[in-house]
Structures are given as C-alpha cells and as structure tokens.
User: Fold Cytochrome p450 from Croton stellatopilosus.
Amino acid sequence: MELITSSSSLLCLENISTILSFIFFGFTLLFSLFSVLIFFLRLKPWCNCEICKSYVTASWRKDFANLCDWYTHLLKKSPTGTIQIHVLNNIITANPENVEYILKTNFHNYPKGKPFSALLGDLLGNGIFNVDGDSWIFQRKMASLELGSLSIRSYAFDLITSEIKERLFPLLSSFASNNQSLDLQDVFRRFSFDNICKFSFGLDPGCLKLSLPISQFALAFDTASKLSAERALAASPLIWRIKRFLNIGSERKLKEAIKMVDELAEEMIKQRRNVDFTNNKDLLSRFMGSVKDDKYLRDIVISFLLAGRDTVASGLTSFFWLLTQNPEVEEAIMEESDRVMGLNEENCIYEKLREMHYLNAAIYESLRLFPPIQFDSKFAQEDDILPDGTFVNKGARVTYHQYAMGRMDRIWGPDFSEFKPERWLKNGVFVAENPYKYPVFQAGFRVCLGKEMALVEMKSVALAVIRAFKVRVVDPDQAPRFSPGLTATVRGGLPVAIQRRKSS
Assistant:
C-alpha cells in the first residue's frame, strides 16, 4: 500500500513538473511576442518614414534582389549619403568623411559594443574580432607582430601554392576532362578552409581532395557562423536569448555546432601543450608563447579561422563571376602574366606577384563592387554628431556600408558600375585609394591585419586558375543573390564550366 502511494506521489510530481514546464514555456513565448509588439508600437509615432515602413513590411523585396542593393538605392538618394532607420535605431552611411570619423577621428566613441559581442559571443568568445579595450589592444599587438613577420608570410604562401598544385589543379582538371560543371564557390570555400586550418591550427581537414569529402568540422563551423549571424535578423534580441535559455530550435543547433568546434580546438591545443611547439609555424603554436589560458587561446584562433575562410572564398567567387562578364580583363591579366611570369606554370613566386599591377588592380576593383564584408557596425558610447551633421544618440548602431560605397557615383564617378581595373592604375602602376573611400579592409585603428595575406591568396589562386583553365559561369546573366550571413555568400553557389587551356 505504501509502495502504491509512493508511486502515485512520484507520478503526481512528474505531472506537476511537466505542467510547470509547459506553463513556463508558454509564459516566456507570450512575453517574447508581447515585447516585440510593444517594441514596434512604441516606435510607431516617430517612425513613419518610408525607410522604416519598407523595412518593417519588407517591401524592398519587390524591387531589389538583395537587401544591400536596397540600402545602396536609399543612400544614393540621400544628399549626405547617410540614412536613419529609426525602427532599428540604426544610422547607415556611405560618406567617406563619416567613415574616417568613426574609424579614426573619434574611434573611442565607436567600439564594437556589447550588442555585437553578444551575437557572436558563443562562437568567438573573447577573440580579437569580438572585443574592445585592453583585450583588443593586447591581441592586436600580438597578432600584428606575428602576421607582419617575413617568416609567417613565406609560410602562408608555401601553404597556398601547395594547396593549388596538389589539390585545386587536380580537382579542376578532373572536371575539365569529364566536361562536368562544378560549384566554384564551394571549391573556393573548401580551398580556403583547408588553407586557413593549416595556417591557424596546423590541421589539414582535406576538404579539397578529389572525392570532395564532407568535413564534420567544416559543417559545424559553417552552421555556427550562419546561426550566429541569423541572431541579428531576429525582431528582438530577446527572442534568440529565450531560445538559447530553453535550448530549442536554432539555438540548440548552434550550441551543438559550437560544441564540436570547441572539442576540436581543445584537442589541438592539448596536443600542442604536450609537445615542443616552438618549431611549429602555425598561429596556434606561435600564440602559445604569449597566451597561457587555453580558452582564451581557442577564442583567438577561432576568430582568425572565421576571418580567413569565408572572406577569401567570397572575394574569389565574385572575381570569377566578373571575369565572365568582362573577358577583356581576363585577357589583360593573361598578357601581364606572360610578360612577368613567363610561360612556365611553376614560375608563380611571391616576388613576381608584386610586379603584377594589373592583376592587383583587378582584384581591388572586384572587391570594390563585391566586398566580402558588405557592411560593418559600431555602437555609439555617447551622443555625437557626424561630419555630415547627422545626430547620433548614445547606444545607436552606426553602420558604414562598404557595398553601397563601391556603387556611389559621387565617390567613384559616372562609370562607378563598370568593372574597370584601370581606375587603380597610373602609368601602369597600381595606386591605392583613400582607405576611408574604400574601407573593404576596414581602416584606421582596426584595419585588417590579414589584408596582405588575403590579397596574396586571392592573387595566387586567380592567377594560377586563369593561366591553366578557361572558367565560364553557366548562367552569366544571373546577378549574384546573397544569403544572409557574416560574409557575402552567393545563394545557390556559382556553377561554372571548366576547360583546360591548350597552351598549358
């Protein structure tokens, strides 16, 4: 009798626990929806501008393939090159003077900010791209010292050339021989992932092998990056925070993906700690001398992994789409290549790349039209006024839009829409533009430390592929449509046809 009573009590307690869980879930969901409703209702009286109406109703989708094209349209119409989206407390600018002010003149008032750090915090932790203040200063000094050394640049170039010869060429040759089309964006993502893993961890995931294997680490990293970026699309941060607290939906998937990334990073760090890592050249080994905390070390290296993978793949994908549209540019690169490198495919060396001014100009021009990072945001610490007279209230998100800036006639002239490498050349020599007019690599105090290595990787791959193969986009009339994310990823990939050049 006592046993039956005890069992009944346990069942009763379990039922009560289940009911309470449902009540809690229902309450949090209701609270979330109520908060979002209040958010928009509270904004309605002072948010009747056409920009905010279009954003809330998503009516921009009728006329523009990409959100960044809609922003470009609005910024072109603005006399100052700046717009305000009140519904998001966001100021967006394509004004070079404002960009210089944000990134240099009043830099300390425009940090990454806690809202941004929260979005990527689970993935990047306290890595360099997700922090401000002393932690950012320490990591930047350390990274600047390492990435600026001749030995690390030589090591990076050796990794790139090895991946090109041993994996990229055999793969492209295989598709060319079988007259098969392939997704060039996927190939470049695999290439850059192999390369950055070797550079950062000393790890070879082998994503670009002929069988095109599925790497669980690459999948987990992709999922973590994508879902972290999607947090920014939520109507209110409260939504993803509640989902994370309850461990449901996208937040549960994000947690699982980050766990896999963490496990691999921890294993790599553990292996290095147990051996003499001083002779290794990868970033992980180099940073170990300065960073003793393994969690902090993981955050730093994962940040470089994120920055070095998707940006390079994105830049190369857009570059080859533009070459299909502009075959005369490809011919000019071939002519310069024959003149500087000679006809020997093995003659592509670091020193020779620096002499190829037209190739450099073509890469810069491609990044002007299709920057891998389409916009970047900071959060104002105090009330401020931008050089164009725009008032910035404390806590506002201030965004400079690289994608739009590359398409402004007031910045680049009436031929802004043309893919024209010649605009970067003076008497045949490449001349860089003002970085605040062209903030593709950021500028000022946060200018990209990996800029030179990224450019070397892009130029090495572009030149090697152009010299050996004819690459043509299957549907050249279809302009790139981008998926939401941290970097510009072409929706549906970039299907291309590959032919081996007769001369090679």
Summary: The chain has a mean pLDDT of 86. The radius of gyration is 25 Å.
